[in-house]
Amino acid sequence: MSIPRTLRPAEHGLQVSSVSKGARKIIEELKSKGFQAELVGGCVRDLLLNKIPKDFDVATNATPEQVRQVFARSRIIGRRFRIVHVRMGREVIEVSTYRASSESIDLKADDDSSYSASGRILRDNVFGSRDQDVFRRDFTINALYYDTELNTVTDYVDGFSDVKKQVLQFIGDPARRIEEDPVRMLRIARFKSKLDLFVDPACEALCRECAYLLRQVPPARLFDEILKLFHSGFAVRVFLELRSMGLFSELFPEADRVFNSSDIDPDSGIVFKGLENTDRRIDEGKPVIAAFLFAVLLWRCVSRRLRLSELEKPVSLMQMHHAAIDVLGRQVQRVAIPRRISTVVMDIWDMQVRLEARRPRTIKRLLEHKRFRAGYDFLLLRSQAGEVKTEIADWWTQIQEVNDEQAILMIQALTGPKSQSKRRRRPRKRQPRRPSE
Ligand code: ATP
Ligand code: MG
């Protein structure tokens, strides 16, 4: 067993006051009941890197049931990995019980942890001590324990020096750690992009070799990871990392196959521009929706299927619908997309047909459609990429800015002289009455 080092974080600019009140209170409460408790993971890492942590995670030797008893406003969640969500005011803090390391799990015959045939951890609910817990964490920089009462950081794996050097490396044998949980490869792409860390090229090469292991990960878990990856505020960098590590093609196989160089062109590519747009919105504190992300990443699959670039004639809504169902149906085999999200993706794509057609009678309804904004933003991306005439995109921009009378004039101007001439309707044939009527 390795001997941990104790550091004085204040000497490295880490202030207890930067820690959320809720997290401090939880640690205080657990310790007052005789348990061990400290902050762990990304929050300690981020504070040492002078970044604002996304959330605060607490580790303890109290079991989930014991944590539940200490905090009235708490609930146990997760199956694969049971933790407790404790509510403190508006904050929700994750409290996890120390786990036994994978090595010690192997030695136990009747435990609650199980591995798949390929070595993937299916459940990880064998509790242990902190000395064991540290070795089942993924990276050295994620394995620092910060006691906010004593104001000390405990470091077993030289994580602190890796934080200072901005190096991301696995605890233990990388190949084994990836086999245990292939999602760790995605975590590399995320932390590397978000925190600007150095990753050993040998480790990246290993990820390329092991990328196929992502196929064993449940699609629902991959959906959660995709959102963490692309809604991190660094979607463009994440995308490039995933591609260079050979991971993107495992997550979005069809999209990866059909992307052409213009899609990923940094100046005008729809994928690039879409991801940039997401990063900008996050930076400005604006909301982002998962559907827009999937609409961007999978658009080329749809447009290829419809041969949009070759057709002179616009496609019908029915054709768009069929193509969308086909593309999404294949995609969910790798990454689950909940129905509430896939219906919005389809709305955004449908909207492309409607917005391009600019049928005078439908304009008002379209402007009031609850997906208009997302559809319009998507149209702008396509117009920047040269897929839609600028004139059409500008028209939609303008109609949102003018007053009602001007809007009516704009709509009237769409109606060319041909369609203005009244077509004579043939009178409807009357249905013969049935004898019983
Ligand atoms: P962030 O919250 O900024 O995304 P994080 O490192 O805190 O980053 P979490 O998913 O919140 O990530 O996990 C908290 C901690 O739990 C991690 O720092 C790590 O120690 C451990 N952990 C999370 N996922 C894994 C995993 N798949 N394998 C091993 N350890 C993990
Ligand atoms: Mg975290």
Key words describing this protein structure:
437 residues, alpha+beta, cca-adding enzyme, domain 2, 10 strands, binds adenosine-5'-triphosphate
Task: Describe it.
By secondary structure, the chain is an alpha+beta fold. Helix 7 packs parallel to helix 9. The protein is elongated. About 3% of the residues have low confidence. Magnesium ion binds next to loops. The site of magnesium ion has 5 residues, from loops.
- Number of helices in the DSSP assignment: 22
Major beta sheet, specifics? 8 strands, mixed
Number of strands: 10
The CATH architecture category of the largest domain equals 2-Layer Sandwich
Rg, nearest Å: 27 Å
What is the overall shape?
elongated
What percentage of the residues does DSSP assign to strands (E)? 5-15%
Give the strand order of the largest sheet, numbering strands 1, 2, ... along the chain: 1-10-9-2-3-6-5-4
Overall tally of domains? 3
Q: Any low-confidence stretches, pLDDT <50, length ≥5?
A: 104-111, 419-423
CATH topology of the largest domain: Beta Polymerase, domain 2
Bound molecules: adenosine-5'-triphosphate, magnesium ion
Distance between the termini: 92 Å
Q: What's the level 1 CATH class of the largest domain?
A: Alpha Beta
The percent range for helix content is 40-55%
Structural class: alpha+beta
How confident is the prediction overall: mean pLDDT? 89
CATH superfamily of the largest domain: Beta Polymerase, domain 2
